[in-house]
UniProtKB/TrEMBL annotation:
<keyword id="KW-0966">Cell projection</keyword>
<feature type="domain" description="SAF">
    <location>
        <begin position="361"/>
        <end position="426"/>
    </location>
</feature>
<keyword id="KW-0969">Cilium</keyword>
<dbReference type="InterPro" id="IPR013974">
    <property type="entry name" value="SAF"/>
</dbReference>
<protein>
    <submittedName>
        <fullName>Flagellar biosynthesis protein FlgA</fullName>
    </submittedName>
</protein>
<dbReference type="InterPro" id="IPR048423">
    <property type="entry name" value="DRL_cat"/>
</dbReference>
<dbReference type="InterPro" id="IPR036291">
    <property type="entry name" value="NAD(P)-bd_dom_sf"/>
</dbReference>
<keyword id="KW-0282">Flagellum</keyword>
<dbReference type="Pfam" id="PF21135">
    <property type="entry name" value="DRL_cat"/>
</dbReference>
<dbReference type="Pfam" id="PF08666">
    <property type="entry name" value="SAF"/>
</dbReference>
Amino acid sequence: MNLSSLLQARNASGRPVRVGLIGAGKFGSMVLSQARHIEGLHVVGVADLDVGKARASLARVGWPAEQYGARTLADAVKTGATCVLDDAAALAACDEIECIIEATGHPIAGVRHALAAIEGNKHVVMVNVEADAMCGPLLAARARERGLVYSMAYGDQPAIICELVDWVRSCGFELTSAGKGMNFEPRYRYSTPDTVWGFFGWTEEEVAKGDFNPKMYNSFTDGTKAAIEMAAVANGTGLDCPDNGLAFPPAGLHDLARVFRPAEDGGRLSRSGLVDIAASQEPDGREVFNNIRYGVFVTFKAPNEYARACFKQYGLLVDPTGWYGSMWRPFHMIGLETSVSVLSAVLRGEATGSSKEFRGDAVATAKRDLKPGEMLDGEGGYAVWANAIPASKSLAIGGLPIGLAHNVRLKRPVAKDTIVRFEDVELERDLDVVALRREMEQSALGKPAKAA
């Protein structure tokens, strides 16, 4: 039975799948736009610090006011309506809710919300890749201990990449690489919230009409989001980040199998088994023909001559040798597709991708020469961008994850393009999340966690 059939059967028994959403920004709004069209899926509550914004989001995506007029969560459960509130903890504590979608985009809050949901015996769909890259393997382990699902969000690129990786392995091909497309030039690394819209080519009028956060969109532009997502993919698939960070080689769909193969076979990868990004622009700014800017991909190798011949016979796009092929999905529709993760977690007990081990890390890296006393402002800000490197390298140098580079003061100077280390900053806030991150690091090193 597929998910829609399972949901139909579940709903016919009088038990809709009940879910809570934390965060009513762009992603959350896209989730909500589809949720009311899925019979048997009940959004019991929407939590956001700005309740007015949450209600505006619901109205924007077509919800009638009476549908989100429940005064309490209990009232929402009873009537089938939705309660809008500013208390995420209340969603985690609501016994009738089975799954929490964490869509705040804030790494510190995301970790706390996920822990609260797990402690409340809820499955977690972690839209918040920033939190997942920082502490995902630990959060997933906590969920497994309780028999719960901790899942990446289907519709976002990491989950869809994990799906393609699973396809490659289930078919018995040799996985070579996995990644996504992105509009990127090296100079974008130094973009700030003040310059970001110019890189998108949007006018002030277009920006004003949308629900766009300049800091968030700048994290897409400067490569930070790519690093975060590829670190999460590494942790979910067992692939590795390149030793010196993502290379962003330009490649179109017709070129994926040629570019994303090992250098010894004529490609751009230092070896097989890596994540990376297919840039949709050449370094000089020219657009790559037939690019995969909004999509995801995998490359793989035929295990034998017979399979190699089949690649050609059945129209697979291959490299010049015929040994390497590629598979891709040219789009991702983020929150419009995330119900797949919710239903998979609740009805099948399966994640649509999940962090399994600490293999990749997204570490804060200076956008300019930084001085002691300066404050770091996290992903998409003015001070740092994220570099995706192997977790082993991050652990060896004490790299500061980008998720902890929020409102922290530098103790030492850090040169432009240098990785910021834990020892370079004063960590005086969010010590609970710092402790969780340290616990995960100790576990990865095979050491017992130190007492807080």
